[in-house]
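Hey, quick one: can you model this chain's 3D structure?
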Amino acid sequence: MRDAQVIPLPRGRVIDGAPVHVRPRARPATVTELHPTVEPAHQESLAGKVSGFLRRRLTGAYPVDDFGFDPELTDAAVMPALRMIFEKWFRVEVTGAVNLPADGGALIVANHSGTVPWDAAMTGVAVHDNHPNNKHLRMLGADLVFKLPVLGSLARATGQTLATRADAERLLRAGEVVGVWPEGFKGIGKPFSERYQLQRFGRGGFVTTAINASVPIIPCSIVGAEEIYPKIADLKPLAKALGLPYFPITPFFPLLGPLGAIPLPTKWHSDFGTPIRTDRQPADAVEDHSHVLAIADHVRTTIQQNLNDMLAKRESVFRRFH
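Sure thing. Here's the predicted structure for all 322 residues.
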């Protein structure tokens, strides 16, 4: 059968006594009409922002504080990349954000794990995106971090500083949120068989820092980071030769080469606990070492108990929590 032929009706023609109104041919829609969210003004604004950012990078006309923190670079380049990993790869669930103080400084003390310190980076995103004023977490890092090429400069630019009491107190008194991981390399480099078992919290230096600055200590418990790189062995001779605290062997690294360095996509849960006040401590509290150690042990016990509770509720390493 032949295809039916469509014959256009002339304008104003009458069929069976009823006028037929022929709609004029519509003009092609513009890109803006098809996609109303794409506005030229917005495109120009975005282009202007990118151009301005690059120009300031080239001329050096961008703000950097006394510690080398570059908030513009952090917000424009680093945080978006970390946020994607935070949301899409580790799918971090954050609870207790109400305990982050809107005003004044605070010292966040967290458990450390995972062979590579992804937990510190993810805590930075958790604090920034959940803080009432979107403050950046100023992390206290070990000497090794700042000795590494590229990474050391990037650490400074994103707000990290050397873990010294003077720098920490200065930041806290300025109203910054500071992060510390008292277990250090002993926590992050412990074998997989000792996962979620907190190591010693040093000699309580973080407690003295918090008391001197009169800021609260906020215990932070992180579940999920222990399983991203299951450390089953340590090549100590190679670590010594490279100047590293350890050289990890995992089921995938170095066997799979660079692919083995990709962290496993475990499901994380980060909880900010009830702040522990330090502004009510006696004037000579920092001189009483046993008192300082007792507070440090209380913080450690609080985090360990919370980790145990969180693990008891976890159904799977890779799926959602209750």
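One thing worth noting: Residues 169 and 212 are 7 Å apart (CA to CA).
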